[in-house]
Specification:
It is a single chain. Helices cover 18% and strands 27% of the residues. By secondary structure, the chain is α+β, with helices and mostly antiparallel strands. The chain has a six-stranded mixed β-sheet with strand order 14-13-15-19-18-16, with helices on both faces. Strands 17, 20, 22, 23, 24 and 26 form a six-stranded mixed β-sheet that branches. A hairpin with a 2-residue loop joins strand 18 and strand 19. The N terminus is likely disordered.
């Protein structure tokens, strides 16, 4: 894996790591934190630390699943609008409601709209099969079934099912505290953008964002702040490039270890990674569009692994055919922003440049062009990672 030069300020990025090498670096150093037990509805949005198994059948006993009348299915054979049969051949009609226990001697339920009243007599106008309208013990969930698998995010429906199963708590992975340190020289005139934007993504990926005020681009001050404890991951935005005031990488080398400086990835080639006291540190570009791309392709993987989730990209995927050529430089992994046309084809966002924030708002997703490709010609299928479900 590429290593920094003896001087931490690598002029010209003498050796850029590949995106795959960066992912391997993360996977080797970042793993799920310890687990904790929380209430089932508190677990929503968290990742299960182990398989959650049903300890009882659902339903726990046979029950009526349809408002109507309990019958023996054999007594309904041949019933129709043209051949109505008296309802309740063995006595008075047995009215039942959802959740009732099936009356003895019955094995099905006919709905109210399958009956009619003629001269005070209830008639059946449709036949039903044995078991219709009746839910048997364990039909929904059998004891021993895995309800939520280890590593899966707990959904609202999961929590509701667990509550019905009388599960009081769930073991989930502790949410990682992710400190966000913006560098002052990278803060826009209207205030810090990277911190709040990254906080939303950190929360999405199961972490707890710990945004801090902007810091001066000063090596000693940055190094001292990086050495503070209390975080599971530190993200610095800005100061990792080749400018005269880019000191974040130098501060990381001073405070701990600068292990990767420069990644062959557009539009975030100045990403740097290292550790301080065993805590992973990632330096992202300061420009918001580049910072967001770097988070999605690099830092988000670390947050999800710490939180106990899948390391893979969190976006729904869709196969689409290119409407026109997607151009990539080759030798670089390319986070190519694209939009879906009304005809279902996909095309690159063609203006605004790599640092354009509006290109992200106009895009429906992105195509990740691998480093060994120079893009895709028009008319070929590609995988689009969608920014939201609505785009699918």
């Amino acid at each position: 894996m590429p290593q920094p030069s003896s001087h931490p300020r690598m002029r010209g990025f003498a050796a850029r790591a590949s995106l795959e090498q960066v992912w391997a670096w993360i996977d080797a150093r970042v793993s799920a934190l310890g687990d904790e037990s929380v209430g089932v509805f508190e677990a929503v949005g968290r990742f299960a630390a182990g398989d959650v198994v049903a300890e009882r059948d659902l339903p726990p006993a046979d029950r009526i699943a349809l408002d109507g009348f309990a019958v023996r299915a054999a007594d309904t054979v041949g019933a129709s609008d043209y051949n109505p049969l008296p309802l309740g051949l063995s006595g008075a009609p047995l009215a039942v409601s959802v959740g009732d226990a099936p009356p003895p001697g019955t094995d099905a339920v006919v709905a109210v709209d399958q009956t009619r009243s003629v001269g005070g007599m209830m008639e059946l106008v449709a036949a039903v099969a044995e078991g219709e309208g009746v839910e048997r013990r364990g039909d929904d969930i059998e004891a021993g079934t895995i309800v939520v698998a280890k590593g899966r995010g707990v959904r609202v429906a999961d929590a509701a099912l667990l509550a019905v199963l009388c599960v009081g708590s769930v073991s989930v992975t502790r949410r990682p505290v992710v400190r966000v340190l913006p560098v002052r020289d990278e803060v826009a005139a209207g205030g810090d953008v990277d911190g709040p934007a990254l906080a939303g993504l950190i929360t999405r990926d199961g972490g707890i964002a710990d945004p801090r005020p902007a810091l001066a681009d000063d090596v000693a001050a940055l190094a001292e702040t990086l050495g503070e404890g209390g975080a599971d991951l530190i993200l610095v935005t800005g100061g990792s490039g080749l400018g005269a005031t880019d000191h974040s990488a130098e501060a990381l080398a001073l405070a701990g270890a600068l292990e990767i400086h420069g990644v062959a990835m557009r539009p975030a080639d100045s990403v740097a990674l290292g550790q301080v006291g065993g805590t992973p540190v990632m330096i992202l570009p300061g420009a918001p569009a580049r910072a967001l791309a770097a988070y999605e392709m690099v830092a988000g993987r670390a947050v999800r692994r710490l939180a106990g989730g899948s390391a893979g990209l969190p976006f729904p995927r869709r196969e689409a055919v290119t409407a026109r050529k997607i151009v990539s430089p080759g030798g670089w992994s390319d986070f190519c922003r694209v939009r879906l046309r009304e005809d279902g084809r996909v095309e690159p966002i063609g203006s605004g440049g790599l640092a354009s924030l509006s290109s992200l708002t106009r895009a429906d997703g992105f195509v990740l062009v691998p480093a060994d490709s120079e893009g895709y010609p028009a008319g070929v299928p590609v995988t689009v990672h969608l920014f939201d479900l609505a785009a699918g």
